[in-house]
Specification:
homodimer; about 450 residues; Nucleoside Triphosphate Pyrophosphohydrolase; 7-stranded mixed β-sheet
């Protein structure tokens, strides 16, 4: 060979060390003290005009129910549609159901830009209004763009900082993986989750701030500050895995997952929204006949810091607050999480790993005894001393209205959650969940929110 | 903590060492010398009555074209159906096409049982007849079973050795991963690829033999001895990855793949077989109007060593022999393979990593100059000194008739295959391909055949 080797190391251990250093940096980063964050966010809130109003479907601008199918779509054919889904399966308590579902085939980018200041990685976070968030303004990734956004279907302004994520070789990619979103509400949606480090000078827009991973962890201990899109990207951060030991070897865990995914016969087919049984379309909403699960509604938005100045759109509004929790145990001195191999009708590949508990309790009020969702009562009635974390977070505020879940970590013992996990459940370490979360189709979006809490130090097990 | 730790090591380095020892064992294993293999296979051929005959569709037993759709299916509703597929995409030389496609939603098991004899891992291989193989009898996995097989839809005999793969905890799982099959011919098909080690006594059925990985490698140097199902399982063997360095870091490679998968807008929808444009149904076959790609035919089978004694079924018969090759280079002293991020209409998730070349040359005879499939002519006209491997192998003989491809490894230089790979191609090491092949939806079945040649030592780069 002549010349220098063109090769590089396949694994860079340095990134995990630098992420750990950033997670340890709490209280103040180089740019904004955590104590000053509220003032900064409040200044962003005052700087912009935000207003969201419920409207009747007939008052939607550019959206209509299409003749023949009743599917709700935009006249451009872009953004997303609300269609029907019919699911048949041969497993679980519900074997057949129909429901409205959001179809959004485009792959968007959720990207957080990283840069070292004073030797510590900081992350560029955006104060972004989304119509579905109860408090409207939350901390979001640097870039949160559907393809419609950046190909300018809605003729808005450029997406700031987008080039860092779309120009190959411009920065150093720390993570880049397609991840699913809510399989109960989206039909096979995936977004690209990206962490990109730059050493360029980055002009700071006034709606953005640089925070360490530890500072973001501090904010994640509060209700409804860090949005879902930021949480799922943070879940993909390649922080140190550490543990060499676990209850199951990685191969045994993967085999358990493969077996679960191979089991169910699932037929999930889109149907016309008009033909969805048990759902009723009114002037202002589409509701389940028993008032359960969610409703489809419409809103008009006036805003000053989005790419466009005003718009209207449909949103899904869940009925009730979700409860989403990992039951945890320390096994052989190593923390373990109880994952659930969960079927959701909108998943591309049937099954993903979900938290131990992922239910909206009010939807299951009439299920008693053996029929109660497993571990739900354990979480709802946990002794406070066993609750390591409990906060409210919002799901994607661009598609869901007031979609809040309580996210918890709850310690359990052998009598509550045995080492020999029930069918469909398995004990995994945080490192194992991270390993699988480095690939697509394994870890669902709710489990990724809980993983982001571990990655940022918001929760320590 | 009281009692012993319940934990185990997440990674077992010993397995890779033991697989390497098995790959080094050539010429003779503990059970059957490679030199005696032909006699053994011939004895199996003589022991059974095999006969395959082409028949008209009207003579199929239990199969018919369904009214309304023209889909070809079995009256039980099981096995598989031949339906239509319509693909629209915004990338590549072909943007829209329609074709017949096999829909087989059940997940089957392809499993090879392993056991140490005299300290060396041996693999239990089966001499199995399949109607589509030109030579009928090939070496297949221990178990090759659709769910219809083992739930007895066709009321046949038990599948031998199946319990080793379906009874959790009975053996030690070395690999267990869902893998796609031919995306050009199957609609979203996946099979479970399993390697399970046992230390039980295993009664040896006369159609089975124990071979080392190295012996299987010797047989893989011959044409049409080791079937596709065996090759894809062997590709998943966790043999040592070795190389710490590569042209792209694992993260950069994964990011490149994520970008490729995110790019194309692909709409692949099943349509009634009757409505597929450019295909013509006759009494004996369904053909493309230009006689290209493949035809759908029917066969009657008489056999003595299958789970049932005789049956008839449709098969896909490709027109022409495929050319499937990795172009290779040694970069910085480390072997690299040029992978192609390839869209196939039947993939569950749009794109998988394919060999550099995967074409049937006769389908592209009228494409000249810039329109020629990339690297095809480089492979077809390669100096023999640059060809490290060249053998014919059959695709799945249970679904495809005389589906043969030449599989090659061809060395190239900078002028033929530059370090700066063209769009859609990337240089990866064998270890990186194995890493991704340890998960679903990354490495297509043709690339896995080539990987099995590396894993067994049939090819050394």
């Amino acid at each position: 060979m002549t010349g220098p080797s063109p090769l590089t190391r396949r694994h860079d251990e340095g990134t995990a060390v630098r992420l750990a250093r950033s997670a340890a940096a709490v209280g103040e980063g180089s740019m904004l003290r955590t104590a000053d964050f509220d003032d900064w966010l409040e200044s962003r809130r005052r700087a912009h005009h935000f207003r969201v109003e419920r409207i009747a479907f007939a008052d939607l601008d550019g959206w209509s129910f299409q003749p023949g199918t009743g599917n709700l779509g935009h006249h451009s054919g872009r953004f997303f549609t609300v269609e029907g889904l019919s699911v048949h399966t041969d497993t679980g308590p519900y074997r057949h159901w129909q429901q409205p579902i959001i179809k959004q085939p485009e792959v968007g980018i959720l990207g957080i830009l990283a840069k070292e200041f004073d030797g510590v990685l900081h992350f560029l976070m955006q104060a972004k209004m989304e119509p579905g968030n109860r408090n409207l303004l939350q901390l979001s990734p640097t870039v949160q763009a559907t393809r419609s956004n950046y190909t300018k279907v809605h003729r808005g302004a450029d997406v700031k900082y987008l080039d860092h994520f779309t120009t190959s070789g411009r920065g150093r990619v720390l993570a880049d993986v397609l991840q699913s979103e809510h399989g109960a509400w989206f039909f096979r949606k995936a977004n690209r989750n990206m962490l990109v480090e730059t050493d360029e000078d980055v002009p700071l827009d006034e709606d953005f701030c640089w925070l360490t991973l530890g500072q973001i962890g501090e904010l994640l201990r509060r209700d409804n500050v860090v949005n879902m899109d930021a949480r799922t990207v943070l879940a993909c951060a390649p922080v140190s895995t550490g543990e060499p030991d676990a209850l199951l070897s990685d191969t045994a865990l993967h085999s358990w997952f493969t077996a679960r995914r191979s089991e169910p016969d699932v037929r999930a087919e889109r149907i016309p929204l008009d033909q969805v049984r048990d759902w009723v379309r009114g002037e202002w909403s589409i509701d389940h006949a028993k008032g359960r699960y969610f409703r489809v509604v419409a809103v008009a938005v006036e805003a000053g810091n989005r790419e466009v100045r005003g718009w209207s759109q449909p949103l899904f509004e869940p009925c009730g607050t979700g409860t989403t929790a990992f039951v945890t145990r320390r096994l052989g001195g190593v923390p373990h999480l109880l994952v659930h191999a969960k079927l959701e009708g909108g998943f591309l590949d049937r099954i993903e790993l979900a938290p131990t508990v992922q239910y909206t309790a009010s939807n299951h009020a009439d299920r008693t005894g053996e029929d109660r969702p497993p571990f739900l009562d354990l979480v709802l009635s946990a002794d406070p001393a066993r609750v390591r974390y409990d906060a409210l977070h919002s799901e994607e505020g661009g598609r869901f209205l007031n979609a809040e879940s309580r996210y918890l970590f709850v310690d359990a013992d052998e009598s509550q959650a045995p080492l020999d996990a029930p069918p469909g459940y398995a004990w995994v370490t945080p490192g194992q969940l991270r390993w699988l979360g480095g690939h697509s189709h394994y870890v669902n979006v709710q489990a990724r929110t809980l993983l982001s809490l571990l990655n940022t130090g918001a929760v320590r097990l």
